[in-house]
């Protein structure tokens, strides 16, 4: 069968602003949206620009807005969309580099700001730092994050406040704050205890709704707030 894709196009070197172009594509119900976009690039319009790598929901590089919802194009199938045309746009809340590619430099700067690495105490052991299965289970869900930026793009607070760390960075902060091997709780809480940090989250839950790895991001951020309040921090 044929499906129509309505794709937002924008080349800052040529265009005054974004516009839309429609393409008819032969698509089976089990084809992924990414398959269809690649078919457009290969068979109709090689100028269409998008970001992709593994194409299996692992790298998180092909995040975009599909029918009004942030998602990975490699995970969504044609059969999931009854509307015609299927509208495909770049992730919101980010500067568009070209077509479906957005600038994620600021996203990763905020990620780096939460010090996303283990900060243990004591001498480095000869082998790995051990952790019980029970302690590991606390952070297991958060570890699934692939930094696709869908949660941050869908967050209403990110739309309102460009200085807000955003759910992806805050989720990574949770991952280390609750890691039993980490010894920098005070420093980590100091990074988060701010209006643009964890207190910027208002619990809308859009992050959880769009997460392609089915992480309950909102719940983990609520746990972070509780940890800070239990330590006497907060507004």
Q: Could you list some keywords that capture this structure?
A:
235 residues, 9 helices, elongated, five-stranded mixed β-sheet, alpha+beta
Give the SSE layout.
Blueprint: E1 2-9, E2 19-26, H1 33-43, E3 63-66, E4 69-72, E5 86-89, E6 96-98, E7 101-102, H2 105-113, H3 133-143, H4 150-154, H5 156-160, H6 167-177, H7 185-192, H8 206-210, H9 217-230
Helix pairs in contact: 2-6, 3-6, 6-7, 6-9
Total strands: the figure is 7
Termini distance?
56 Å
Structural classification = alpha+beta
Q: Provide the gyration radius in Å.
A: 20 Å
The percent range for helix content is 25-40%
Low-confidence stretches are none
Give a quick summary of the entry:
The protein is of the alpha+beta class and 235 residues long. It has helices at 33-43, 105-113, 133-143, 150-154, 156-160, 167-177, 185-192, 206-210, 217-230; strands at 2-9, 19-26, 63-66, 69-72, 86-89, 96-98, 101-102. The strands form two sheets. It has a five-stranded mixed β-sheet with strand order 2-1-5-3-4. Strands 6-7 form a two-stranded antiparallel ribbon.
What does this structure look like?
The chain has 235 residues and is α+β, with helices and mostly antiparallel strands. Helices cover 34% and strands 14% of the residues. The protein is built from nine helices and seven strands; from the N terminus they run ββαβββββαααααααα. The chain has a five-stranded mixed beta sheet. A two-stranded antiparallel ribbon has the order 6-7. Helix 3 runs antiparallel to helix 6 and helix 6 crosses helix 9 (217-230). The termini are far apart.
């Amino acid at each position: 069968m044929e499906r129509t894709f309505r794709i937002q196009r924008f080349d800052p070197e040529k265009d005054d602003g974004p516009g839309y172009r429609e393409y008819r594509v032969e698509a089976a119900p089990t084809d992924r949206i990414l398959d269809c976009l690649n078919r457009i690039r290969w068979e109709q319009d090689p100028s269409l620009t998008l970001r992709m790598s593994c194409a299996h929901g692992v790298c998180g590089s092909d995040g975009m807005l599909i029918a009004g919802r942030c998602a990975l194009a490699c995970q969504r199938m044609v059969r999931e969309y009854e509307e015609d045309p299927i509208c495909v746009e770049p992730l919101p809340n980010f500067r568009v580099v070209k077509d479906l590619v957005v600038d994620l430099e600021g996203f990763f700067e905020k990620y780096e700001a939460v010090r996303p690495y283990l900060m243990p105490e004591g001498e480095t052991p000869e082998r790995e730092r051990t952790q019980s299965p029970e302690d590991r289970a606390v952070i297991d869900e958060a570890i699934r994050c692939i930094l696709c930026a869908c949660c941050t793009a869908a967050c209403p607070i990110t739309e309102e406040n460009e200085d807000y760390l955003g759910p992806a960075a805050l989720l990574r902060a949770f991952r280390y704050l609750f890691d039993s091997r980490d010894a920098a709780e005070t420093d980590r809480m100091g990074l988060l205890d701010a209006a643009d940090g964890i207190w910027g989250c208002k619990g809308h839950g859009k992050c959880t709704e769009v997460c392609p790895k089915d992480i309950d991001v909102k719940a983990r951020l609520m746990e972070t707030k509780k940890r800070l309040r239990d330590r006497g921090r907060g507004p």
